[in-house]
């Protein structure tokens, strides 16, 4: 995988928020607070984000997408992120699942349609994933924050139970492929490695079906919740990304060209950073020569 080409694509085609995300991912550079505020723009009073600018009802799916952008800006612990996590916690169903508001029935995409069991399981895995990712950073005080997984651990555990209850004996699940990698990441993060491994085995068998944007998202999600880079599924995912990378450094997005930069940023995050280049050590002779040259300069 040509990371330099991918980075160049984001620099050339991304907006200022995209470039700030890139800078943080590659160097840890703190983003301009004004840019972070721009990424937070549009949050509704209930603390979720809508699926469209003119919408007035918060969407779980849209909120999770916005949290992914904020994660790339190290901004999950800001008020907007904390409020979004609290909102997700408040709307979790008694059985541990999440479902979009019925008011979104006519506008929700198929993967988030209210009342659809496959959509319900996807939203459950997605919401639990972000509550897992933000569990430590979203709260900084109080006794609940000392638990493994932070303040949202009980909420995520209920969701994990719902995900496990949906699994067939072979590790498959009655929902979309994306549900599998988000669910596998959640289970791994909660220490349920056996069930996570069963789901990852299914994903490995179906890897050719996923597509570059999905492969990048899958690898990014699994790494985010602690699956090691040497895991066979992650190794295979990086090989798929290397084979699918286009000559301009990008990967196609099934959601359209407007999501290409996001896909590239996800692919960058899906790969471990390259090891630092060793700094050559000067020999004693060369050091003496440098000192001599400096002293003897006219």
Task: Offer a quick outline of the entry.
This protein has 298 residues and is mainly α.
The profile of the biggest β sheet is: 2 strands, antiparallel
Poorly predicted segments = 137-149, 282-298
Structural class: mainly alpha
Residue fraction in strands: under 5%
Mean pLDDT: 87
Give the radius of gyration. Answer: 22 Å
First-to-last CA distance: 50 Å
Question: How many runs of DSSP E, i.e. beta strands?
Answer: 2
Q: How many helices? A: 13
Characterize the overall form.
Answer: globular
Please list the strands of the largest sheet in the order they lie side by side: 1-2
**SSE order, one letter for each helix or strand:** HHHEEHHHHHHHHHH
| Helical content band | 40-55%
């Amino acid at each position: 995988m040509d990371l330099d080409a991918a980075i160049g694509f984001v620099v050339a085609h991304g907006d200022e928020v995209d470039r700030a995300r890139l800078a943080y991912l590659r160097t840890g550079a703190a983003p301009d607070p004004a840019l972070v505020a721009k990424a937070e723009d549009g949050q509704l009073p209930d603390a979720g984000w809508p699926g469209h600018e003119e919408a007035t009802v918060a969407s779980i799916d849209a909120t999770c997408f916005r949290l992914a952008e904020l994660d790339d800006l190290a901004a999950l612990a800001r008020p907007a992120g904390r409020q979004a996590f609290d909102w997700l916690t408040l709307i979790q169903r008694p059985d541990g699942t999440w479902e979009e508001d019925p008011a979104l029935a006519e506008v929700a995409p198929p993967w988030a349609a209210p009342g659809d069991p496959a959509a319900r399981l996807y939203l459950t895995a997605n919401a639990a994933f972000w509550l897992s990712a933000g569990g430590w950073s979203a709260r900084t005080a109080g006794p609940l924050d000392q638990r493994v997984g932070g303040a949202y651990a009980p909420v995520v555990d209920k969701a994990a139970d719902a995900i496990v209850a949906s699994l067939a004996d072979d590790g498959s699940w009655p929902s979309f492929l994306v549900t599998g990698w988000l669910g596998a990441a959640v289970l791994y993060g909660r220490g349920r490695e056996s069930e996570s491994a069963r789901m990852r085995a299914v994903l490995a068998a179906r890897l050719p079906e996923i597509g570059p944007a999905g492969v990048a998202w899958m690898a990014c999600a699994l790494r985010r919740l602690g699956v090691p880079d040497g895991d066979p599924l992650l190794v295979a995912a990086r090989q798929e990304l290397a084979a699918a990378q286009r000559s301009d450094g990008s990967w196609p997005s099934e959601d359209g060209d407007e999501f290409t930069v996001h896909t590239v940023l996800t692919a960058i995050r899906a790969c471990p950073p390259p090891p630092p280049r060793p700094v050559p050590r000067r020999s004693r002779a060369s050091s003496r020569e440098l000192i001599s040259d400096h002293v003897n300069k006219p």
